[in-house]
Amino acid sequence: MTFLTVVARGLIRRPVRTGLTLLGISIGIAAVVALVGISRGFESSWASGMKARGTDVVVSNLSSALTPKPFEDKVRERITPLPHVAATCTILVDLMGIESSSMMFVSAREWGGFSWENLKLTAGRMPKDAMEPVVILGRTAAEVLSKKIGDPIQIETRELTVAGIIDGGAIVEDGSVILSLPLLQEITGNQGKINIIDVRVTPGTTEAEVKTLCQEINKVVPEGKAMPAGDNIGNSQAYKFIRAMSWGTSLLAVLVGVLGVMNTMLMTVFERTQEICILLALGWKRSRIVRLILWESALLGFSGGVVGVIIGGIGVKLLEHTPAIRGLLEADLSPQLMLMSVLISLVVGVISGLYPAWRSSRLPPGQALHG
Amino acid sequence: MTSSTPSSASPPSQVVYEAANLKREFDDGKVQALRGVDFSILAGEFVAITGPSGCGKTTLLQILGALIKPSSGSLLYRGNSLADLPDPSEYRAREIGFIFQSFHLLPTYTTLENVQMPMFEMGWSASERRDRAAELLKSVGLGHRLDQFPAKLSGGERQRVAIARSLANGCSVLLADEPTGNLDSENAERVMELLVNLHTDKHMTLVLITHDQGIAGTASRTLRMKDGRVLSDSALTTTLAAS
Ligand SMILES: Nc1ncnc2c1ncn2[C@@H]1O[C@H](COP(=O)(O)OP(=O)(O)OP(=O)(O)O)[C@@H](O)[C@H]1O
Ligand SMILES: [Mg+2]
To answer: How far is CA A67 from the centre of its chain?
Structure first.
């Protein structure tokens, strides 16, 4: 029997209580994994979407909402004369309810713009001209909406036809309904409005030059903010807010877990008063009693963390496959996030054990040993 | 403090305990459990402490075991004041073994594990702990009960586990508080036989509280207490008679 056996036995002896406490802390950790993973996933989906569109710089205003704020397409005229700008492509992106799906990316691109280039058709064809009433579906979008080539598709009040299905190379592209910009502007009554300008730089432009270009764009385009496509979208206010919210919410859940662990450990100390006194009478140092309680608490935290990561991971995977979310995002369940979650849980366990351990160390050894 | 230093000291170290005017109060002086107790106990003695309920026997034993401190007076263990020990757990871990009336085994650990509990402070390896515990359990006739939980044992068996546990640290002093109080006469006899053997064969110092006059009679010396004082001490009587 090792000291760890003693520790583990302390937890196993009350399986229901230990189990419930474990569940409490693991739900908190699952919330961390799910919420943080999803918000990070959202950010990286955007980033990979930009890359897939073949853009180097993205100009948009993401300060206040999940989709960028619209502005006049004439803004583009201020960008094209700038040095290193090879091409631009105007885009109007929106999250819309499309038939059975309550939220889906609709991405309308300048007819003839370069962001059509990277779309690989897997079936059907591209639109013939700017105003042909057809859409192209990302492959996930096609699955979610269960559409095939030639099917009608309702966008707002207009019925269009599915002309092609593409592999977009990124989750956002695959989950999108893609159509020509003037067509969507007409359907939604947004003539002349866009909310993204993709900018391609001339070959050989250095990273530093791209940064300078962004600064110059920001000077002439107060309507939006220019960002190198590689940069994390998480810099925007809206995403900072989402991230803070997801951390806040999940840490609140963890806090509930902390209270659960602390309560359990205190109960353990109280109900084992006599046992602790016996151990003291047998020569155990107070420091060993403290370690016993802290280890138990830490083990509870650690196991809760592992279970929580598993619950969170499975939960997110299930969520990704629900029709409501499918194609919108891919959660970022990096090993780093999982490791950090388990670590948080372990630290939570130790911290929750501090007060109970302190209480246990103050028990008078003679107290419970009469007779 | 280690077990080797005291025994290697000069003759005065033959005195294991030396108590002078020991007093102990509870509840801010409302209860005076010990009202001035003097005695000394020599190495290898078997001292029985008797007396009516509430006279302070357990209190005295807890002071001897450094579980509580006296309110006043002094108590020396092999020449060192127990009250001044920086770390009484060290003393409990290495010098003494406790046996209680109600056994006080840990219910969620097997007999083998219970006996290993005191050994954690001894710096032995897990296998050393295990082997020694098994050996001790065999020596109290429980070699066949190693993996049993205390709830499945009879009272007599439980107390024998407790005796094995009290010996786990290789102590030289055993403090027993009515070890047969919860046992029928047959089991009591068996337990006492074990304890007496430890005293005679291993020369252990045995301080034992009992209500049983027969058991007190097997001791080499009897302290009779009343109202927090020592009423009579058979060692003094014999010394007086001899002089
Ligand atoms: N922790 C305590 N708080 C208050 N009073 C105590 C405490 N411990 C002991 N006493 C009191 O001190 C007196 C002596 O108690 P002690 O347990 O030493 O008696 P005892 O001789 O062992 O009795 P018994 O034979 O019934 O075990 C009793 O009056 C008891 O109520
Ligand atoms: Mg008593």
So the answer is: 16
Are the beta carbons of A282 and B65 separated by less than 8 Å? no
Spatial CA neighbour of B91 closest among B76, B72, B113, B106: B76
Q: Is the CB of B59 under 6 A from ligand 1?
A: yes
d(CA B113, CA A65): 62
Instruction: Identify the residue among B2, B58, B67 best suited for mutation to test binding to A, counting A beta carbons within 10 A and taking the highest.
Output: B67
Give A230's pLDDT tier (boundaries 50, 70, 90): low
Q: Are residues A113 and A119 in contact, defined by beta-carbon separation less than 8 angstroms?
A: no
What residue has token string 């000394």? B40
Cα A172 to Cα A43, A238, B117, B161: the distances in Å are 11, 18, 61, 69
Cβ atoms of residues B101 and B182 within 8 Å: yes
Joined together, the tokens standing for residue A316 give: 């997110």
How much distance in Å is there from the Cα of B85 to the middle of ligand 1? 24
- pLDDT per residue as tens digits for the range B152-182: 999 999 999 999 999 999 999 999 999 999 9
pLDDT digits (tens, 9 = 90+) for A40-83: 887 777 777 777 788 889 898 877 677 788 999 999 999 999 99
**Looking at chain B from residue 70 to 89, which residues have their Cβ under 8 Å from any Cβ of chain A?**
87, 89
Backbone angles phi, psi at A138, to 5 degrees: -65, 155
Supply the pTM of this predicted model. Answer: 0.79
Rounded to whole angstroms, the Cα distance separating B242 from A261 reads 66
Minimum-distance ligand 1 atom for the alpha carbon of B211? 25
The ipTM, to two decimals, is: 0.90
Ligand nearest to the CA of B51: 1
> From start to end of B136-215, where are the E strands?
173-177, 205-209
The residue among A1, A14, A296 with the most chain B CBs within 10 A of its CB, best to mutate, is A1
Domains and CATH numbers, chain B: 15-242 (3.40.50.300)
Distance A120 CA to ligand 1 centre (A): 89
Closest CA to A118 of A163, A66, A77, A178: A178
Residue spans per domain, chain A: 3-44+239-370, 62-223
DSSP β-bridge partners for residue B215: none
